[in-house]
Amino acid sequence: MKIRNQKLLRDSASYLLIALFLYLFLFADLHKDTWDIPASLLNVNTIFLSIILEAIPFIILGVFVSALIQVFVSEETVRKMIPKNPLLALLPASLMGIIFPVCECAIVPVVRRLIKKGMPLHTGIVFLAAGPVLNPVVFASTYYAFQSNPQIAYGRMAMAFVCALLIGLTIYLLFKNTDQLKHSAGDVSGSGHVHEGVSRWKSTFYHAGDEFFDMGKYLIFGAAIASLFQTFLDRSFLQAIGSSDFQSPAIMMAFAYVLSLCSEADAFVAASFGGMFSAGAILSFLVYGPMIDLKNTIMLLAYFRAKFVFVLILVITAVVYGVTLLYQALIL
């Protein structure tokens, strides 16, 4: 009951926040003389809603595809696609996201189920790292968000592919195929919700609706933080750190971790930083966030051993930062 009340409170706060922004967007001009609303707050509102409205179509598409996978595709089918050779398994695992585009909001329990069914640990981690980025929905949203610079979309795919392979190889060298799951935890369904006694198609729509509202809260939070950053942070400070090839990727990776955005919508937040950060920093944001962020860390700690999770975070951070620096030196 306590957990349900906390969830209800968080959901209500999210809905009230977006309702307030929508009201200000539609009716602020009617009250600006009476309320004396500062121009800076109106700017926050405009940026926030622009991010939300651009991202929603891609989130709807993403959650529906994810729900179809949850209902119609078995983990056993996916496991049969992976070669038994641990090194050869890295490549198909990194490309599974193209066929099974699961957002990072849902991929942790999916990977856990796959590992419990026999998928090697390092192969599951490759899918966890690559799946939320290397899929058609994320590519389309990134291409749309960066229409003036489509190289960002192609660079994101290339960097995510290389990083996922390196992360999987490192995890294999460190842990082989040892068991890192917490078996005391209860079995977890793909979306965190169970819909019994209904048809598969009805269940698909139920899962899609559940996931939409679950990830929508993170999008609202991320868009609000991004709009506040855009409006109130000193532009000269951002330009100073954003122009550094060494500092700016680290800063944007930290932003990605804290904001915990859905990979189907994070490109629109990243695009709003385009004038302040280098292309390499933007790419580090777009690659790092879907692989590991605050909400994923909490989920990983619930399903995997703590030592493994912290090592995984360090590996992902080091690999993404190193590949970003290499990409900047060779490509940009």
UniProtKB/TrEMBL annotation:
This is Permease. The keyword Transmembrane helix applies. Pfam families: ArsP_1. It is found in: Cell membrane. The keyword Glycoprotein does not apply. It is a multi-pass membrane protein. Its main location: membrane. Coiled coil: none annotated. Belongs to the UPF0718 family. Keywords: Cell membrane, Membrane, Transmembrane, Transmembrane helix. The chain crosses the membrane at residues 12-28, 48-73, 85-111, 123-146, 158-175, 267-288, 308-330. GO terms for cellular component: plasma membrane.
